[in-house]
Amino acid sequence: MKRTIIIFILSFFLIDFVSSVNQWQKNELIKVSTNNQEMIFKVDGSGKVLFLYWGSIMNDATPFLEYKNKNFQLTDQTITPQLYQPYGGITYIEPALQLTHADGVITTELIFEKVEKISMNENIDHTVITLKDNVYPLYADILFKSYKKENIISQSVSVYHKEDGDIQINKIASTYIPLHANSYHLTYFYGSWGREMNIEEKKLTPGISVIESKRGVRNTQSTNPSFLLSLNGVSGEYSGDVYAGSLAWSGTYKITFECDETNALHIVGGINPFVSTYYIKANEKFTTPEMILSYSNEGRNKITHHFHDWARRYNIKHGDQIRPVVLNSWEGTYFDFDEKKILKMIDDAAILGIELFVLDDGWFGNKYPRNHDNAGLGDWQVNKKKLPRGIKYLAEYAHKKGLKFGIWIEPEMVNPKSELADNHPDWIVKSGNREKPTERTQWILDLSNPLVQKFVYKSVDNLLSESSHINYIKWDANRYVTNAGSEHLPKDRQSHFWIEYTKGLYNVYERLRAKYPELLMQQCSSGGGRIDFGALKYHDEFWTSDDTNPSHRIFIQHGTNIFYPSIATGAHVSANPNHQTGMYNSLKFRFDVAMSGRLGMELQPADITGSEYDFAKKAIENYKYIRNTVQMGDLYRLVSPYNDTGWSSLMYVSKDKKQAVLFVYNLKFQSPTAFFETQLKGLDTNKNYKIEELNAVENKNLFWGNLKSFTGDYLMKAGINVDLTEPFTSRVFLLEVE
Ligand code: DGJ
């Protein structure tokens, strides 16, 4: 009986699956669409698939069946951009694909083979367009996943062949996008340690502009593989045509923006081809990471909604679950702790209303104790001197106090002073017989090696097996790759290193996730050094930056949250003066900034005393009241910190529009006669919202409309004005439908 039911379910699934595969009809346009955008392709007379359009949905796209671009008379073949442009045939642009065939030929020309549309469920369609070389048995499957409601389209490419020998892939992008407009304006992210995700904007000029990383591991510390591209002028938050992309890959990457002599723009993005030649045998398949794409004709704030909604539903782990308030031990103790100190921190955290305690670096290593950053990495056994009763005891203690327990680990790394380095020198990333340069006195383990993958997996698994009350790990990675190379990879396959490393890392994440589906995981890499949708697929959140100084965090979080959602944005209140900057900030300002992300603390709780203690306790309580809106709601950027007035503001509105939270910050001295005014967004026009100021200090300078009600219409048209003139001050307002 049981068997019959299973067969029935399987055959039902199969019929449904097969019937939703539509074969493409000749002379039809091929469309990839979501609720508000579409890409349109067609097969031309020579069999090439042309990329005709990406933008909002068209009522009638049939003229594209006849479409010829202006240059068609100039050559005897069309040079309308292709769906996926290889190097070969008539092309002069940066290609998406360049490979050397088994017989040494370096060109590829791709023509249409077939298209399949598969409806995965009511919200997701897959479209696979298969291209084939017109001479060689080489294929490229271009896969688009459309997330209709979230208005996201992801693109990836798989290449395989039946040639007589290996093919050599010199470049394989995840996406190629052609656009045509009068001008193009690129927004991208640039930074360094402690100042990640700064926004940079530039008008693209003829030639090629590049966003790339050649570093590996800490791959997003200086640039992030995400971009916004505005057409015909810089887009506003709420107006203009904007295209966006973000590569889901934690290895090296390259995205080029080529403005050619016809004033067309060609975007090519994916794994960085830099020293990454990759060979595949006949019948092997190489699949690129996904480029996550979206379009908006209502400015860039909409792009943020698309990415946040998609990320919460389909990318980050547990995107539908509220995040706990964290206390992380790092800046409270650094390496200097023992069991007594940690237990006291847990006690204090519990009273303050903290929900998760994270023990950071310094808990491991015996022969080479981790009392400094120069020893112990790789020896993941608890330091018996510091913690005689082990991690299990701490985790259970925290549990009894009503807290979740988390622990730091940096499992990809090894200090020269460690038992691991003594025992496995062959597991360390190295380039032949050259010196292995250290950074932060550490080396990187060679994750292209399956034995190392097993070790890394086992290190985390063993730690988690200590107690079912370890609920969270902070996965750190504090350097990037230099002198790349692997003792495991064959001599003639050293260029596989960069790709195999990242695949090895994902393999470990996959195995951990399979065994520990409920585990909360934070991605950290010296702060925001590995924030990408590839790594985030396995994580709940990221450590946004080691710089917790609020006036800096306003910028860092503003940039980060354009693509990556607030629910995943670790934002901690730290000590005074700030350990990175030496600057003093009021506790209120520190809280008001941290509360616009996933709130946590990073200090010694016992150091907060008197009225500050009461303030902190109340602020945590307030955060718990608003966090559903901050973490799950829609983010509206109202005033950018990059404008030079000194004021900036953002708000979140819950999906049902019943609650909103407004944050206002001031970074400059303002004339006492000046006041800040902003119109709100995203509210229900017809509802009455009662406004209440949160985190007010001694009820000073309360908003004139405090505890009064206003219609959404009024608040979105007239706005609210705030008396906020002193530098480094802030206000938080709760709005609730009455
Ligand atoms: C770098 C991280 O960004 C910090 O938060 C902390 O975990 C240290 N590593 C520990 O070494």
Provide keyphrases for this structure.
21% helix, binds (2R,3S,4R,5S)-2-(hydroxymethyl)piperidine-3,4,5-triol, disordered N terminus, alpha+beta, 738 residues, 8-stranded parallel β-barrel, 13 helices
Notes on the structure:
The protein contains 13 helices and 38 strands. Strand 32 and strand 33 (659-666) form a beta hairpin. The chain starts with a helix and ends with a strand. Bound molecules: (2R,3S,4R,5S)-2-(hydroxymethyl)piperidine-3,4,5-triol (DGJ). Residues 330, 360-361, 408, 476, 478, 524, 526-527, 543, 546 line the site of (2R,3S,4R,5S)-2-(hydroxymethyl)piperidine-3,4,5-triol (DGJ).
Terminal Cα span: 55 Å
* Helix share bin: 10-25%
User: Major β-sheet, in short?
Assistant: 11 strands, antiparallel
What's the oligomerization state?
single chain
* Tally of helical runs: 13
Mean pLDDT: 94
Rg, Å, rounded: 27 Å
| Number of β-strand runs | 38
Report the uncertain regions: 1-23
The dominant shape is globular
Which ions, cofactors or small ligands are bound in this entry? (2R,3S,4R,5S)-2-(hydroxymethyl)piperidine-3,4,5-triol
Structural class: alpha+beta
Ordered list of secondary-structure elements with their pairings:
Elements: H1 2-19, E1 22-23, E2 30-33, E3 38-43, E4 49-55, E5 97-100, E6 110-119, E7 124-133, E8 138-147, E9 152-161, E10 167-180, E11 184-190, E12 198-203, E13 207-213, E14 226-231, E15 242-248, E16 253-259, E17 264-271, E18 278-280, E19 285-287, E20 290-296, H2 300-315, E21 326-328, H3 330-333, H4 339-352, E22 356-359, H5 390-400, E23 404-409, E24 413-414, H6 419-423, E25 443-444, H7 450-465, E26 470-475, H8 497-515, E27 520-523, H9 533-536, E28 541-543, H10 550-563, E29 569-574, H11 587-594, E30 598-602, H12 610-632, E31 634-639, E32 647-653, E33 659-666, E34 676-678, E35 688-694, E36 709-711, H13 712-717, E37 720-722, E38 729-737
Parallel strand pairs: 21-22, 21-30, 22-23, 23-26, 26-27, 27-28, 28-29, 29-30
Antiparallel strand pairs: 1-6, 2-3, 3-4, 5-10, 6-7, 7-8, 8-9, 9-19, 9-20, 10-17, 10-18, 11-12, 11-14, 13-16, 14-15, 15-20, 16-17, 24-25, 31-32, 32-33, 33-38, 34-37, 35-36, 35-38
The protein binds (2R,3S,4R,5S)-2-(hydroxymethyl)piperidine-3,4,5-triol (DGJ).
